[in-house]
Automatic annotation (TrEMBL):
<protein>
    <submittedName>
        <fullName>SDR family oxidoreductase</fullName>
    </submittedName>
</protein>
<dbReference type="Pfam" id="PF13561">
    <property type="entry name" value="adh_short_C2"/>
</dbReference>
<comment type="similarity">
    <text>Belongs to the short-chain dehydrogenases/reductases (SDR) family.</text>
</comment>
<dbReference type="InterPro" id="IPR002347">
    <property type="entry name" value="SDR_fam"/>
</dbReference>
<keyword id="KW-0560">Oxidoreductase</keyword>
<dbReference type="InterPro" id="IPR036291">
    <property type="entry name" value="NAD(P)-bd_dom_sf"/>
</dbReference>
């Protein structure tokens, strides 16, 4: 795949809000075609509606429950039929399942269906189209794949497993398909703002969180989008089989205390 084929056809899961929305917007601003999906129907997805209004000929949206493999298969099939090709897949959909290692079996199963199996199955469904286009798969995992905190299981376990998925996709499907992982840290999304707001003093918690990042701030969703744009380009053609951490240096800190 070369950049001269722009506009590329880019699939983005979890595109209704947060990081997924920012990724979709970044590719659209670059001139690409984006076919996005999320669990929310379009009536409950205001950010997706805004993209539809701004890019009516280049943004398409489907309501998909990625824990249901039949829905993933249908989404990929319909997406490919729109333009006859798929050039990039950004497998982003997921959510925090922070229940602790003593979680219920139902929490464990839901977490792995959403945060691991969906990425694997999406890649399987898109494989044929990506082989034709010499395409790219970008898997969005988390810095929890590398180090985590009490109570974050089983989420962190599935995110760790995605590192191996990226490796296996690379060595078994390359060189036709190039696969790279991205592990964002604390990104300033509405979801994280809701976490701040759940505290008695949200601003104090935000400032404490910022202090834990050597760069002196938390990340912006658009920064993840820009990294995806680069990794999907030929300029990143020698990057494969690895997962890039973007967490503002947070994981470089050995200890985590009130003064960090």
């Amino acid at each position: 795949m070369t950049d001269s084929l722009s506009p590329r056809v880019v699939l983005v899961t979890g595109a209704s809000q947060g990081i997924g929305h920012a990724i979709a917007q970044t590719f659209l601003e670059h001139g690409d075609i984006v076919i996005g999906c999320a669990h929310s129907p379009i009536d409950n997805a205001p950010f997706a509606r805004a993209l539809l209004a701004r890019y009516p000929e280049r943004f398409f949206y489907y309501s998909v429950d990625v824990t249901q493999t039949a829905q993933i298969a249908q989404f990929v099939s319909e997406a490919e039929s729109l333009f006859g090709r798929i050039d990039v897949v950004v497998s982003n959909a997921g959510k925090n399942v922070f229940r602790g290692i003593d979680c219920a079996e139902s929490d464990w199963s839901h977490n792995f269906d959403l945060n691991l199996r969906s990425h694997w199955f999406l890649a399987k469904c898109a494989r044929g189209a990506l082989q034709k286009s010499q395409g790219v798969i970008l898997v969005i995992t988390s810095n929890h794949a590398f180090s985590t905190m009490p109570g974050c299981a089983p989420y962190n376990i599935s995110k760790r497993a995605l590192l191996s998925l990226v490796q296996s996709l690379t060595i078994e499907w390359g060189p036709a398909i190039r696969t790279v992982g991205i592990a964002p840290g604390f990104i300033d999304t509405d979801g994280n703002q809701a976490w701040f707001d759940s505290h008695a003093n949200p601003q104090a918690v935000r400032e404490k969180t910022i202090k834990k990042h050597p760069v002196g701030r938390i990340g912006e969703p658009g920064e993840v989008g820009e990294l995806c744009l680069f990794l999907a380009s030929d300029k990143a053609g020698f990057i494969a089989g690895t997962t890039i951490v973007m967490d503002g240096g947070r994981s470089a800190i050995m200890q985590d205390d009130d003064d960090a």
